[in-house]
Design goal:
about 400 residues, alpha+beta, Alpha-Beta Plaits, 6-stranded mixed sheet
Length: about 400
Amino acid sequence: MSAAHSSASPAAGARAARFTDHLFAPVRIGADQIRELLVPFGHAPHIRRHSATVIISRVQLVAALFAVMVPLWSVADLLVFPWPQSGLMTLMRLASGAVFLALAWPWRWSGSRAQADLLLLALLLVPPLFYLLSIPVLAPALAGAADGGRAALVAHLYALMPNVVLAGLAIFPLTALEVLLFAAPAFLITLAGIVLQGGTPSMAAHGPTFWLMGLVMGAAMFSGMSQLHYMAALVNRAMTDPLTGVHTRRSGAETLDLFFRLSAQQGTPLAVAFVDIDHFKGINDGFGHDEGDKALRRVAECLRGALRGGDVLVRWGGEEFLAILANTDVEGARTVVSRLRAQGLGQRPDGRPLTASIGVAERLADGVEDWPRLVELADARMYEAKRRGRDRAVLPGPVVVSPAA
Protein backbone atom coordinates (compact mmCIF):
# COMPACT_ATOMS: atom_id res chain seq x y z
CA MET A 1 0.00 0.00 0.00
CA SER A 2 2.78 2.42 0.95
CA ALA A 3 4.70 1.67 -2.27
CA ALA A 4 1.62 2.32 -4.36
CA HIS A 5 1.01 5.53 -2.45
CA SER A 6 4.60 6.72 -2.92
CA SER A 7 4.50 5.99 -6.64
CA ALA A 8 1.19 7.80 -7.01
CA SER A 9 2.39 10.96 -5.24
CA PRO A 10 4.95 12.01 -7.89
CA ALA A 11 2.40 11.37 -10.63
CA ALA A 12 -0.15 13.52 -8.81
CA GLY A 13 2.46 16.24 -8.38
CA ALA A 14 3.31 16.13 -12.07
CA ARG A 15 -0.37 16.41 -12.99
CA ALA A 16 -0.76 19.38 -10.64
CA ALA A 17 2.28 21.07 -12.20
CA ARG A 18 0.86 20.56 -15.69
CA PHE A 19 -2.49 21.95 -14.54
CA THR A 20 -0.92 25.12 -13.10
CA ASP A 21 1.25 25.55 -16.18
CA HIS A 22 -1.85 25.36 -18.35
CA LEU A 23 -3.80 27.66 -16.01
CA PHE A 24 -1.25 30.46 -16.02
CA ALA A 25 0.05 30.07 -19.60
CA PRO A 26 1.41 31.95 -21.40
CA VAL A 27 2.32 34.13 -18.39
CA ARG A 28 4.21 31.77 -16.07
CA ILE A 29 5.67 33.54 -13.07
CA GLY A 30 8.56 32.08 -11.11
CA ALA A 31 9.24 32.76 -7.45
CA ASP A 32 12.25 34.94 -8.30
CA GLN A 33 10.09 37.17 -10.53
CA ILE A 34 7.35 37.92 -8.02
CA ARG A 35 9.27 40.81 -6.42
CA GLU A 36 9.86 42.41 -9.82
CA LEU A 37 6.10 42.37 -10.43
CA LEU A 38 5.23 43.79 -7.02
CA VAL A 39 7.64 46.74 -6.84
CA PRO A 40 9.45 48.74 -9.55
CA PHE A 41 12.83 48.67 -7.80
CA GLY A 42 15.74 46.66 -9.19
CA HIS A 43 14.45 46.29 -12.75
CA ALA A 44 17.10 45.98 -15.43
CA PRO A 45 17.73 49.18 -17.43
CA HIS A 46 16.53 47.62 -20.69
CA ILE A 47 13.24 46.57 -19.04
CA ARG A 48 12.71 50.09 -17.70
CA ARG A 49 13.54 51.54 -21.11
CA HIS A 50 11.11 49.29 -22.97
CA SER A 51 8.32 49.76 -20.42
CA ALA A 52 8.77 53.54 -20.70
CA THR A 53 8.44 53.30 -24.48
CA VAL A 54 5.24 51.25 -24.20
CA ILE A 55 3.72 53.59 -21.60
CA ILE A 56 4.48 56.74 -23.62
CA SER A 57 3.06 55.27 -26.84
CA ARG A 58 -0.14 54.15 -25.12
CA VAL A 59 -0.55 57.47 -23.31
CA GLN A 60 -0.33 59.22 -26.67
CA LEU A 61 -2.85 56.84 -28.25
CA VAL A 62 -5.41 57.22 -25.46
CA ALA A 63 -4.85 60.98 -25.29
CA ALA A 64 -5.43 61.28 -29.04
CA LEU A 65 -8.79 59.49 -28.73
CA PHE A 66 -9.84 61.61 -25.75
CA ALA A 67 -8.73 64.82 -27.49
CA VAL A 68 -11.48 64.14 -30.04
CA MET A 69 -14.16 62.47 -27.91
CA VAL A 70 -14.17 64.79 -24.89
CA PRO A 71 -14.96 68.03 -26.78
CA LEU A 72 -17.59 66.22 -28.88
CA TRP A 73 -19.47 65.23 -25.71
CA SER A 74 -20.22 68.94 -25.14
CA VAL A 75 -23.19 68.41 -27.49
CA ALA A 76 -24.83 66.33 -24.75
CA ASP A 77 -24.14 69.06 -22.18
CA LEU A 78 -25.77 71.67 -24.40
CA LEU A 79 -28.87 69.47 -24.79
CA VAL A 80 -29.21 68.47 -21.13
CA PHE A 81 -28.05 71.44 -19.02
CA PRO A 82 -29.32 75.04 -19.14
CA TRP A 83 -27.18 78.09 -19.80
CA PRO A 84 -24.72 79.10 -18.33
CA GLN A 85 -23.91 75.62 -16.93
CA SER A 86 -23.77 74.09 -20.39
CA GLY A 87 -21.39 76.83 -21.53
CA LEU A 88 -19.09 76.29 -18.54
CA MET A 89 -19.06 72.55 -19.15
CA THR A 90 -18.18 73.16 -22.79
CA LEU A 91 -15.25 75.36 -21.76
CA MET A 92 -14.08 72.67 -19.35
CA ARG A 93 -14.30 70.07 -22.11
CA LEU A 94 -12.32 72.24 -24.51
CA ALA A 95 -9.65 72.76 -21.84
CA SER A 96 -9.51 69.01 -21.18
CA GLY A 97 -9.27 68.34 -24.91
CA ALA A 98 -6.35 70.76 -25.14
CA VAL A 99 -4.52 68.88 -22.37
CA PHE A 100 -5.16 65.56 -24.12
CA LEU A 101 -3.97 67.06 -27.41
CA ALA A 102 -0.74 68.22 -25.73
CA LEU A 103 -0.19 64.71 -24.35
CA ALA A 104 -0.86 63.15 -27.76
CA TRP A 105 1.37 65.56 -29.66
CA PRO A 106 4.50 63.87 -31.11
CA TRP A 107 7.03 65.74 -28.99
CA ARG A 108 10.63 64.53 -28.92
CA TRP A 109 10.35 62.73 -25.58
CA SER A 110 13.56 61.44 -24.00
CA GLY A 111 11.92 58.07 -23.33
CA SER A 112 12.97 57.88 -19.68
CA ARG A 113 10.80 56.03 -17.20
CA ALA A 114 10.38 59.15 -15.04
CA GLN A 115 9.02 61.02 -18.06
CA ALA A 116 6.68 58.15 -18.91
CA ASP A 117 5.31 58.14 -15.36
CA LEU A 118 4.68 61.90 -15.45
CA LEU A 119 2.82 61.63 -18.75
CA LEU A 120 0.72 58.76 -17.43
CA LEU A 121 -0.09 60.67 -14.24
CA ALA A 122 -1.17 63.70 -16.26
CA LEU A 123 -3.42 61.52 -18.40
CA LEU A 124 -5.00 59.87 -15.37
CA LEU A 125 -5.63 63.11 -13.49
CA VAL A 126 -7.69 64.87 -16.18
CA PRO A 127 -10.96 62.82 -15.97
CA PRO A 128 -11.33 62.78 -12.15
CA LEU A 129 -10.42 66.48 -11.90
CA PHE A 130 -13.01 67.19 -14.58
CA TYR A 131 -15.57 65.36 -12.43
CA LEU A 132 -14.51 67.27 -9.31
CA LEU A 133 -14.81 70.65 -11.04
CA SER A 134 -18.17 69.72 -12.56
CA ILE A 135 -19.80 69.31 -9.14
CA PRO A 136 -20.10 73.03 -8.25
CA VAL A 137 -20.83 73.93 -11.88
CA LEU A 138 -23.76 71.53 -12.18
CA ALA A 139 -25.17 71.99 -8.67
CA PRO A 140 -27.55 74.85 -9.66
CA ALA A 141 -28.75 72.98 -12.73
CA LEU A 142 -29.44 69.81 -10.76
CA ALA A 143 -31.30 71.75 -8.06
CA GLY A 144 -33.53 73.87 -10.26
CA ALA A 145 -33.90 72.08 -13.59
CA ALA A 146 -37.42 71.15 -14.60
CA ASP A 147 -36.20 67.99 -16.28
CA GLY A 148 -33.85 66.75 -13.55
CA GLY A 149 -33.95 63.15 -14.71
CA ARG A 150 -31.61 63.50 -17.68
CA ALA A 151 -29.40 66.01 -15.89
CA ALA A 152 -29.04 63.72 -12.89
CA LEU A 153 -28.22 60.79 -15.17
CA VAL A 154 -25.42 62.70 -16.91
CA ALA A 155 -24.09 63.92 -13.55
CA HIS A 156 -23.99 60.31 -12.30
CA LEU A 157 -22.07 59.34 -15.43
CA TYR A 158 -19.50 62.00 -14.61
CA ALA A 159 -19.18 60.49 -11.14
CA LEU A 160 -17.97 57.27 -12.79
CA MET A 161 -14.91 58.95 -14.27
CA PRO A 162 -12.59 57.79 -11.45
CA ASN A 163 -13.63 54.21 -12.29
CA VAL A 164 -12.78 54.86 -15.94
CA VAL A 165 -9.31 55.94 -14.82
CA LEU A 166 -8.85 52.79 -12.75
CA ALA A 167 -9.97 50.62 -15.66
CA GLY A 168 -7.58 52.47 -17.96
CA LEU A 169 -4.61 51.38 -15.85
CA ALA A 170 -5.14 47.87 -17.22
CA ILE A 171 -3.52 48.74 -20.56
CA PHE A 172 -0.14 49.74 -19.06
CA PRO A 173 2.71 47.40 -18.00
CA LEU A 174 2.95 48.33 -14.31
CA THR A 175 3.92 46.70 -11.03
CA ALA A 176 1.41 46.26 -8.22
CA LEU A 177 2.88 49.19 -6.27
CA GLU A 178 2.74 51.46 -9.31
CA VAL A 179 -0.94 50.63 -9.87
CA LEU A 180 -1.65 51.49 -6.23
CA LEU A 181 0.15 54.82 -6.52
CA PHE A 182 -1.50 55.79 -9.80
CA ALA A 183 -4.93 54.72 -8.46
CA ALA A 184 -4.64 56.72 -5.22
CA PRO A 185 -5.67 60.09 -6.76
CA ALA A 186 -8.88 58.54 -8.12
CA PHE A 187 -9.87 57.34 -4.64
CA LEU A 188 -8.98 60.69 -3.06
CA ILE A 189 -10.89 62.69 -5.68
CA THR A 190 -13.94 60.44 -5.26
CA LEU A 191 -13.82 61.07 -1.52
CA ALA A 192 -13.43 64.81 -2.13
CA GLY A 193 -16.42 64.71 -4.48
CA ILE A 194 -18.61 63.16 -1.77
CA VAL A 195 -17.64 65.90 0.67
CA LEU A 196 -18.05 68.64 -1.95
CA GLN A 197 -21.64 67.52 -2.58
CA GLY A 198 -22.41 67.93 1.10
CA GLY A 199 -22.31 64.27 2.02
CA THR A 200 -20.54 62.51 4.86
CA PRO A 201 -18.55 59.45 3.83
CA SER A 202 -20.03 56.32 5.37
CA MET A 203 -19.70 52.60 4.86
CA ALA A 204 -23.43 52.15 4.27
CA ALA A 205 -23.82 54.92 1.71
CA HIS A 206 -20.47 54.86 -0.09
CA GLY A 207 -19.02 51.45 0.68
CA PRO A 208 -20.32 49.90 -2.57
CA THR A 209 -18.72 52.71 -4.59
CA PHE A 210 -15.27 52.16 -3.09
CA TRP A 211 -15.71 48.39 -3.22
CA LEU A 212 -16.37 48.63 -6.97
CA MET A 213 -13.35 50.92 -7.38
CA GLY A 214 -11.19 48.43 -5.48
CA LEU A 215 -12.45 45.61 -7.67
CA VAL A 216 -11.66 47.53 -10.85
CA MET A 217 -8.23 48.44 -9.49
CA GLY A 218 -7.52 44.79 -8.67
CA ALA A 219 -8.36 43.71 -12.20
CA ALA A 220 -6.17 46.49 -13.58
CA MET A 221 -3.36 45.42 -11.24
CA PHE A 222 -3.48 41.82 -12.46
CA SER A 223 -3.57 42.96 -16.09
CA GLY A 224 -0.69 45.40 -15.62
CA MET A 225 1.50 42.83 -13.86
CA SER A 226 0.75 40.25 -16.54
CA GLN A 227 1.67 42.70 -19.29
CA LEU A 228 4.88 43.65 -17.50
CA HIS A 229 5.91 40.02 -17.07
CA TYR A 230 5.09 39.11 -20.65
CA MET A 231 6.90 42.16 -22.00
CA ALA A 232 9.98 41.43 -19.86
CA ALA A 233 10.01 37.82 -21.04
CA LEU A 234 9.85 38.88 -24.70
CA VAL A 235 12.49 41.58 -24.26
CA ASN A 236 14.85 39.25 -22.40
CA ARG A 237 14.38 36.58 -25.04
CA ALA A 238 15.14 39.06 -27.82
CA MET A 239 18.18 40.43 -25.98
CA THR A 240 19.74 37.12 -24.95
CA ASP A 241 21.70 34.74 -27.15
CA PRO A 242 19.95 31.36 -26.74
CA LEU A 243 23.20 29.35 -26.92
CA THR A 244 25.46 31.23 -24.51
CA GLY A 245 22.99 33.24 -22.43
CA VAL A 246 24.83 36.55 -23.03
CA HIS A 247 23.57 39.64 -24.84
CA THR A 248 22.90 39.50 -28.57
CA ARG A 249 24.72 41.88 -30.88
CA ARG A 250 21.65 44.08 -31.26
CA SER A 251 21.04 44.46 -27.53
CA GLY A 252 24.78 44.81 -26.93
CA ALA A 253 24.96 47.67 -29.42
CA GLU A 254 22.08 49.43 -27.63
CA THR A 255 23.81 48.97 -24.29
CA LEU A 256 27.16 50.15 -25.64
CA ASP A 257 25.52 53.23 -27.15
CA LEU A 258 24.00 54.07 -23.76
CA PHE A 259 27.27 53.45 -21.90
CA PHE A 260 29.22 55.55 -24.41
CA ARG A 261 26.87 58.52 -24.11
CA LEU A 262 26.99 58.38 -20.31
CA SER A 263 30.78 58.10 -20.40
CA ALA A 264 31.06 61.12 -22.71
CA GLN A 265 28.69 63.20 -20.57
CA GLN A 266 30.43 62.37 -17.30
CA GLY A 267 33.99 62.29 -18.62
CA THR A 268 34.61 58.75 -17.36
CA PRO A 269 36.63 56.01 -19.09
CA LEU A 270 34.98 53.21 -21.05
CA ALA A 271 36.81 50.17 -22.39
CA VAL A 272 35.77 47.32 -24.66
CA ALA A 273 37.55 43.99 -25.12
CA PHE A 274 37.07 42.14 -28.41
CA VAL A 275 37.58 38.40 -27.84
CA ASP A 276 37.97 35.88 -30.68
CA ILE A 277 38.47 32.15 -29.98
CA ASP A 278 41.64 30.81 -31.59
CA HIS A 279 41.28 28.05 -34.20
CA PHE A 280 37.58 27.66 -33.50
CA LYS A 281 36.88 26.40 -37.01
CA GLY A 282 39.05 23.37 -36.23
CA ILE A 283 36.65 22.37 -33.45
CA ASN A 284 33.61 22.44 -35.74
CA ASP A 285 35.45 20.68 -38.58
CA GLY A 286 37.20 18.06 -36.47
CA PHE A 287 34.67 17.32 -33.72
CA GLY A 288 31.31 18.59 -34.99
CA HIS A 289 29.12 21.59 -34.30
CA ASP A 290 27.83 20.17 -31.01
CA GLU A 291 31.35 20.31 -29.59
CA GLY A 292 31.69 23.80 -31.05
CA ASP A 293 28.54 24.88 -29.22
CA LYS A 294 29.89 23.42 -25.98
CA ALA A 295 33.12 25.34 -26.46
CA LEU A 296 31.20 28.58 -26.98
CA ARG A 297 29.22 28.01 -23.80
CA ARG A 298 32.42 27.29 -21.84
CA VAL A 299 34.09 30.44 -23.13
CA ALA A 300 31.04 32.57 -22.31
CA GLU A 301 30.93 31.14 -18.80
CA CYS A 302 34.64 31.83 -18.25
CA LEU A 303 34.33 35.36 -19.61
CA ARG A 304 31.42 36.11 -17.28
CA GLY A 305 33.49 34.81 -14.38
CA ALA A 306 36.29 37.26 -15.17
CA LEU A 307 34.03 40.31 -15.51
CA ARG A 308 32.54 42.48 -12.80
CA GLY A 309 28.85 42.72 -12.02
CA GLY A 310 28.44 45.99 -13.93
CA ASP A 311 30.21 44.79 -17.07
CA VAL A 312 28.27 43.48 -20.06
CA LEU A 313 29.19 40.49 -22.22
CA VAL A 314 27.95 40.36 -25.82
CA ARG A 315 28.14 37.62 -28.42
CA TRP A 316 29.21 39.84 -31.30
CA GLY A 317 29.59 37.14 -33.96
CA GLY A 318 30.01 33.39 -34.39
CA GLU A 319 32.99 32.87 -32.07
CA GLU A 320 33.49 36.56 -31.23
CA PHE A 321 32.57 38.15 -27.90
CA LEU A 322 32.63 41.79 -26.85
CA ALA A 323 33.08 42.72 -23.19
CA ILE A 324 31.86 46.22 -22.30
CA LEU A 325 33.87 47.45 -19.31
CA ALA A 326 32.07 50.42 -17.78
CA ASN A 327 34.14 53.09 -15.99
CA THR A 328 37.36 51.18 -16.80
CA ASP A 329 40.62 52.73 -18.02
CA VAL A 330 43.46 50.94 -19.82
CA GLU A 331 45.06 49.69 -16.62
CA GLY A 332 41.72 48.38 -15.37
CA ALA A 333 41.14 46.62 -18.69
CA ARG A 334 44.60 45.06 -18.42
CA THR A 335 43.67 43.74 -14.97
CA VAL A 336 40.51 42.15 -16.42
CA VAL A 337 42.47 40.58 -19.29
CA SER A 338 45.13 39.24 -16.93
CA ARG A 339 42.46 37.76 -14.66
CA LEU A 340 40.79 36.11 -17.63
CA ARG A 341 44.03 34.66 -18.91
CA ALA A 342 44.94 33.41 -15.45
CA GLN A 343 41.70 31.48 -15.03
CA GLY A 344 41.66 30.19 -18.63
CA LEU A 345 38.84 29.49 -21.05
CA GLY A 346 38.45 25.74 -20.55
CA GLN A 347 39.58 22.93 -22.82
CA ARG A 348 39.10 21.93 -26.42
CA PRO A 349 37.57 18.49 -27.17
CA ASP A 350 41.08 17.03 -27.55
CA GLY A 351 42.12 18.21 -24.09
CA ARG A 352 44.24 21.15 -25.17
CA PRO A 353 43.43 24.55 -23.60
CA LEU A 354 41.06 26.91 -25.34
CA THR A 355 42.77 30.22 -26.09
CA ALA A 356 41.62 33.54 -27.50
CA SER A 357 43.05 36.62 -29.16
CA ILE A 358 41.92 39.84 -27.47
CA GLY A 359 41.91 43.45 -28.62
CA VAL A 360 41.16 46.29 -26.19
CA ALA A 361 40.19 49.91 -26.87
CA GLU A 362 39.40 52.68 -24.40
CA ARG A 363 37.45 55.87 -25.10
CA LEU A 364 39.80 58.40 -23.47
CA ALA A 365 43.11 56.76 -24.34
CA ASP A 366 42.13 56.32 -27.99
CA GLY A 367 40.30 59.65 -28.29
CA VAL A 368 37.31 58.21 -30.16
CA GLU A 369 34.09 60.15 -30.74
CA ASP A 370 31.59 57.29 -31.10
CA TRP A 371 31.21 53.68 -30.02
CA PRO A 372 31.47 52.08 -33.52
CA ARG A 373 35.00 53.51 -33.78
CA LEU A 374 35.77 52.09 -30.33
CA VAL A 375 34.69 48.61 -31.44
CA GLU A 376 36.58 49.01 -34.72
CA LEU A 377 39.83 49.75 -32.86
CA ALA A 378 39.33 46.78 -30.51
CA ASP A 379 38.64 44.54 -33.52
CA ALA A 380 41.81 45.74 -35.27
CA ARG A 381 43.88 45.05 -32.15
CA MET A 382 42.35 41.59 -31.90
CA TYR A 383 43.64 40.85 -35.42
CA GLU A 384 47.00 42.29 -34.39
CA ALA A 385 47.04 39.78 -31.53
CA LYS A 386 46.40 36.99 -34.06
CA ARG A 387 49.23 38.24 -36.28
CA ARG A 388 51.56 38.20 -33.28
CA GLY A 389 50.89 34.50 -32.70
CA ARG A 390 47.41 34.31 -31.07
CA ASP A 391 46.72 33.56 -27.39
CA ARG A 392 47.52 37.12 -26.36
CA ALA A 393 45.95 40.57 -25.95
CA VAL A 394 46.79 43.92 -27.52
CA LEU A 395 45.86 47.06 -25.59
CA PRO A 396 46.28 50.78 -26.40
CA GLY A 397 49.89 51.86 -26.49
CA PRO A 398 50.31 49.30 -27.94
CA VAL A 399 50.64 47.08 -24.88
CA VAL A 400 50.81 43.35 -25.48
CA VAL A 401 49.85 40.81 -22.82
CA SER A 402 51.64 37.67 -24.06
CA PRO A 403 51.30 34.04 -22.94
CA ALA A 404 54.45 34.41 -20.82
CA ALA A 405 52.69 37.08 -18.75
